[in-house]
# Entry
Amino acid sequence: MVKTIVLVGMMGSGKSSIGRQISKKTGLCYIDIDEEIEKKTKSKIKDIFKKKGEVYFRNIEEIICKKFINGEKKIVSIGGGAFMNKNIRAIISKVGKSFWIDVNKDILFDRLKKSKNLRPLLDYSNLKKSIDDIIKQRKSTYAKADVKIKVCKTNKENIANKIIKLL
# Structure
């Protein structure tokens, strides 16, 4: 079995839910990097972006990723923008295996529109365009993940099972 399993993909792709499902089925520890950032800073991510800016957030994100993506057997979900950082990708390729949760943009739109967790990089007044723009910026980098898991339906248990079979 792979040491550190890292789930990557767009915000709203279900990385956290899928990570928890894999943890439940395998008994492996699950770490959500965004939750760890909030614990360390004692602030919500949207507040970090608002008060300190994206550069500050990305620096904290890299530090937290280095702490938890360390080769130990566990499941880690990283924020949507973390995989864009080449240092984080290098750590993952050294000690883990990355799985891109590639979700249909219509599913993403529905999830993000309904989410109570407002994402700092989204323009909610033009959500579809905002999602499209971010996908265009990130897709080629997400494609560098070790494994692509295409998601057209929203059954997190089936997706978790698919990933477990690939370990």
